[in-house]
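<instruction>
Derive structure tokens from the sequence
<data>
Labelled lines for chain and fold
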Amino acid sequence: MTYEPIVIPVATTGSAGAAVGSAESPPLTGEVLAVHVHYHPTAPATTTVDVDEVDGPARKVLDKAASNTTVTHYPRAQMQDITGTPVAGIYEPIPLAGRKLRVSVANSNPLPEAVVVTIIIQR
């Protein structure tokens, strides 16, 4: 078992408080264990960050509300039984099978690295 940090810097363009940008990871195989979101010192508190799987199931990994406080999240998916019914209180890391992750930033300022997201993958 190995752990790998995948660093995804996102530049934003547009006007103050309304700048947007996105960037993608290379294809990843493994489980998402953590998502560290680091904001530029001048990013406004209105900055939102989404991390989504590209293609395939197109699952949402993180839907970060407006903030500018650097933080690490540990997103998990709710498990289901064999009928597809959610199992209460059981969550597991999100598996990726050769899919890219897209980081989308909105409501920020125009900055060369408005947000730098580091995804920790367990392979």
Notes: The chain has a mean pLDDT of 97. The two ends are 6 Å apart (CA to CA). The longest strand covers residues 28-39. The chain is about 0% helix and 60% strand.
